[in-house]
Structures are given as structure tokens and as C-alpha cells.
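User: As part of a screening pipeline, I want to sanity-check one entry by hand. Below is the sequence and the SMILES for adenosine-5'-triphosphate. Please return the complex as C-alpha cells so I can compare it with the automated output.
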Amino acid sequence: MLKVEHLTKVYPGGTVALKDLSFEVSDGEFLVIIGLSGSGKSTLLRCINRLIDPTEGKVILDGIDVTASKGAELRHIRRKIGMIFQHFNLVKRSSVLTNVLNGRLGYLNPWTSTLGFFPADEKKRAMDALKRLSIDDKVDSRADALSGGQQQRVGIARTLMQEPTLILADEPVASLDPVLAHSIMQYLEQLNKEDKVTVICSLHYLDLIQRYATRVIGLKDGVKVFEGSPAEINREKFKEIYGEEAQDVRATALE
Amino acid sequence: MQKYKPFLKALRKLLITIVLVVLIILSIRVTEPDLVKLVSSFPKAESIMGQLLSPVLFDRESEKITVSQMVPVPCDSVPSLVSADSGPRIILDPPCGSPKDVINLRGVELPPNAEISLRWILPDGGLLSIKNIMTDDKGEIDMPLEIRPITTATDGKAAQISFEVTLPNGKLVVAQTLKDVIDAMFVTIFMALIATTLGTIIAVPLSFLAASNITRRGALGTGVYYLVRAFLNIIRSYEPLVLATIFAMIVGFGSPFAGVIALSITTAASLGKMFSEAVESIDTGPIEAITATGANRIQVVMYAVVPQIIPDFLSFTIYHWDINVRISTIIGFVGGGGIGYLLSQRINTLQYSQAGTALLAIILVVWALDFLSSEIRKSLV
Ligand SMILES: Nc1ncnc2c1ncn2[C@@H]1O[C@H](COP(=O)(O)OP(=O)(O)OP(=O)(O)O)[C@@H](O)[C@H]1O
Ligand SMILES: [Mg+2]
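Assistant: Here is the complex for your manual check:
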């Protein structure tokens, strides 16, 4: 259970990215965040695992105040929150295996892992994660030798190593073609349904929203302008979230 | 106002041109170029260049046959000895003389086509070189010899004329100069290697402290960041040459240690700066991703930062070793030891052929390292 209470983020330059935002996410939900570029989706997701410190408000995960925690406590909270990125954020020069093992660092002895030593059972765990994403044949490749879809699967495998209860996915398919987009979304859906992982995911394509979301939150200039089921997103709502200009382009996707 | 813009622009160009011309004239006057002297000293330059371009590399192994013959100067000062009548020998005609006389000198039954160094052994035992001369096919030489006043007999002892024969079929051996040059070259290369290693070890932690994306967080971090950067910039403004001169005064001239300290310091500063820029230019995505997994700061640096910077760090380090070899040759000139020191000594004592050996070695080593370092760096990308 995740509670976001009166969350506000003002960047040093003065940009108000989030304005008094509140909502709740129950366990097992697949919540999709939509909104124009610059509406604050990435800021919101990063406030949840404190990659960004919010200016005001609280994030409470399973009764623990994430916004008040620091040091080891914060790292323990982060361990349970997986994150998936639009640009995959793999270490390009490292092998696929190392990239996946990186997801386990929060659980490992800081001293031995600093020296580059990973126990054999962790390597096996990494192989299992790669198998689950059908990318185990690339285990020894350098990350930058992989295609975009393959890199994102490695990104998900890295997240699996965390044994997460919550996954934050920031436009996970925005740099992939539509076919690959569905395949990646299906892996997320699988984690959501089979492993009971709560997913909060920002998305741009309406067909993906309709297909995967259990609930949708719409942001506009950092303010929540919509909250409801994907079925409730009609022309009117869409115009509200995306503005008049976007209407023609996006509304066609609704037909 | 708008109307005058092209005019103002032209005026500005004109002013800049005038300033440039004045600067050039000033610099010509300050540096006092003397073209006449450059041309008039051509013969001297030719001789120096000739020697520099014929470096001493090998010597013929010499069998030291020494033949000597007493020369009473003046004639009645000491009873003259009858010379042997077989074997390698010197025949003087007349067998004695007074200062300034020119007598005839013949050497017979010597090895044919051998190089002979001819010299006086003075009454007090001192040596005075006359010249080097080649024997003919029959193993003879025949030449006029001027009797110098310094060869006058003293205390009943006469001067002697002596040959030292270098056999033409003697084996080629590495000249002592070449050995000295190779030794000094190794000193220089290792000097550069140690300085680069020490400099790198110091530069790595400094570079992280001077990288804004790693250190510049909070008041303490920002303070450290500016402090380290300022420190690096100050050190970088000292030329290694200046530092080497200072340290040579402290630890002694001709000691490689002075060069090593100076080079380590400048290497640390300039690699620190280069490294910190490499750290600043890394992709922050992986840092974000690994931070999000719950890894601590050190783990983030090890797994997200280090893999990204290793190729750059290695490449900069190798490049700097290459630079340091060049600088250490120059540092030798100001007393830092190694090949530069040897070169400056040979030049100061006018031994230009030996200086040529050192120059040749420097050129070869610099060229080889340049090639090697660029090959290694290419393979790192
Ligand atoms: N580090 C930052 N410093 C200052 N302003 C920022 C920073 N990051 C984001 N912003 C601003 O905050 C606002 C929200 O940005 P955010 O990246 O959260 O939007 P987004 O919805 O994720 O957009 P996109 O769809 O383009 O990813 C934007 O106006 C952006 O310019
Ligand atoms: Mg974004």
C-alpha cells in the first residue's frame, strides 16, 4: 500500500513540477500515469524512491515514511522498489550478467561486492532472471551490443534481482517500436499478475493504457487532472489532460 | 545608430589589425633575430651538425700495440737510443731535433690499413695527442712531424713519440658512449614511469573530489569540490621544469629523484583535471539505476562510475607517460638526471658526436613510445 500525500516538488530553478499531489495505490494494482511531456511524471516516480527529494508532502510505503528516511533505512526501502527506465540505464561497458547482478547490490556485503565479488548463488539467481526474460543467451555480451528491446529485458531482469514489491517504470517502452512495446509490457503484466508486484508506470500510447492499466492518473503541469479506470478516458477527458492542440492527434487513437 | 554599424565593424577590424601588427613588430624587436649571424656562422653550424649527425654507436675492438721512440729535444740533451731494426717501429729522420724543427716520421711493419693514434708522451708522463692516421697497404706511414717546445727534455728525460694501433679486423663492439646513453635512457623512461604511476595514484581520488557530479552535494561537498579544483589549477600552473629546478636544488643536481618528484606533482595535477572531466562526462543513467536498487555510494561508484571511466583513465595515463618521457629528457637539462643530463654534459664539453648518440636515442624512444601509446589507446576504445 502506497500513499502519496500533498506532494510538491519545486526545482532549484523555480519550476513547480508537482503541485499538492495526493493519491493511493493498493497492492497488486497496475497504475498508469499519463500526461504531456513536462507534466511531472518522471518527477513523481523519482520522488517515490527518493532519487529526487520532494519539497513538501509525504510518501508512505507500507506504513513507512519514505520521505523521512535516510541512510541505510532509505537503502533498505529502495531495495524493495524496482525501477525501469526509458533509456534502460544499463552500464554499457559491463556484461549483461554484471548489469543484472547490480540489481542485487543492496542485499550484498558492501565490502566483498565493492571488490567485484558476487557469490555463486547470486549468479544463479541472475541466470534465472535472464531465463525468465528469455535473454539468457546474451549473458556474456556487453550491454551496448544488445538491441533496445533486449536491453530493456536486461533492465527488468536487474529489477527482478531486487525481489521488489513495487516497480516504478518511467516510460519503459517509449524508445521501442510498437511490437516490442507490447512484449515488454507483457513482462510487466506477468510480474504484476504472477508475482503480485504493484506497478506504477508512465505511458504515452492510449492502446497500451487501455490494455494494461487497472487504474489511470492524469497529470497536467504537476496537478492531478484525472483519476479513474482506463475505460473512463474518453475524448473529453483526453482533451483535458493533453490540451486542445493534442486532441486531433490523440483522439484518433480512441476511435 | 543602425546606419553606423557597418562602419563601426570595419573600424573595429582595422583597430585589431593595427594592434596585431604592433604586437608582431614589438616581439621581433624583443627577440632580436639576427639573420646575418645565422648565415655567417654557417661553417660552425655545419661542423656541429656534422658531428651531431654522426653519433658514436660502435667502436672497433682495438688491439693495443704501442710502439714508442724516444726523441731527444734538443739533439744533445740525452743520448739517443738506437731503434730496433725489425718489428713494428718508428724511424725518425733526423732522429732528434730542436723546437719548431720539422722532422720526418716513418712507421714500418705496422698492420696494414689500421688506424693509428699518434701522440707525444711528454717527459713528465703527460700525453699530447697529435692526430689519427691510417697506415697504407704495406703497413707504413710517412709524415712530417713538428717538434713542439713542450717536448723539450727535462731532468735528463726525453719525450717519446708513440703509436697506438687499432686493428682494422678487430670486432665491432658497442661504444662506451652508447652504453652510457642506453643506461641514461632507461633512467629517463623509468623516471617517467614512476612519476606517472605516483601521479596517477594521487590523481584518482583527487579527480573524484573535483568532479561536480560526484562531490558537489551539500555545503561540505561543494566546499571540497572548489578547494580541490583550485588546488589542481594552482599546481597545474607550475611548469614541471620550474619544479624540477627547485627540487634539483634541494636534492642535488643530476639526481633523477628531483625529476621524479617534479613530474609526479605535475602529473597528479594535470591527470586529476583530465580524470575529473572524464568523471563529469559520464552517463548518469546507470548511477540513477544502481542508486535505485538500494546500493550504497561506494557500490554506485564501483559499478556505475568505474566501468565508464576506466578506458579514459587508462588512455590518459598512457598518454601522460608518453608526455612525461619527453619532459624528463628536458628536465635532465636542468639537473634532473637521465638522458637529458647526459646530453647537456656532452654538449657543455663539446663532445658533439656523443651528444648525437643521445639525440638519436631520444628521437627513437620518443617515436617508439608515441607509436606504442597510440596503439594501446586505440585498442582501449
Ligand atoms: N533537474 C531538473 N531541474 C529543473 N527542472 C526540472 C528538472 N527535471 C525536470 N524539470 C522540470 O520539471 C517539469 C517536470 O519534468 P518531468 O521530467 O517530471 O516531466 P515528464 O512528465 O516526465 O516529461 P517527459 O514526458 O518529457 O518525460 C518540467 O517542466 C521540467 O522542465
Ligand atoms: Mg519523463
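Points to compare against the pipeline: The interface with chain A takes residues 283, 285-286, 288-296, 298-299, 302-304, 307-308, 310-311 of chain B (CB under 8 Å). Residues 184 and 339 of chain B are 5 Å apart (CA to CA).
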